[in-house]
Specification:
With about 160 residues, this protein is α+β, with helices and mostly antiparallel strands. About 35% of the residues lie in helices and about 25% in strands. It is built from 5 helices and 6 strands.
Length: about 160
Amino acid sequence: MRTPRLRAAVALLLAAVAGCGIRPTEVVDAGEPIAGLAKGMRIYFASDTGLRGVSRPGVQVRNLDFALKLLFAGPNEAEQKSGLTNLVLLNGSYHAFATGNRVTLDAPDTYLSADDRLRNGQLVCSLARAQAVLHPTLRPDDIQVTLRPKGEPLGPYQCSYFLGS
């Protein structure tokens, strides 16, 4: 009596597995896997949980000052609704320039405090990303940014310092 039941159970199991409707396929190529940081221009804005980078797809970064203009434009409407804001305002003249992995922001008419992590982080991370976009052999994590406002210079900083906590 056990044999007919066992045979029926095995037959039912085989029918279920064979009849699931999924047919075997070849390997489907979906492209390269994601590795490391996302590519392209990102601008960093402040939120109640810290800094958040947002993509600016299709934007051609021409120089570091252009990246600052993207930052000054602030978050778009959807980004604002998600809690992002821009804390950066540079008074008077400013100019960002770089040599290799070292970026400097001159803002002689602006006061910046070493204690203002979110504001400084927005500048450092946005400039580091822009330099990496301009020079694809550089990684944003390897770029050091010095802020030179009115008063004492700040840095050099790496973006990871501001994203850590």
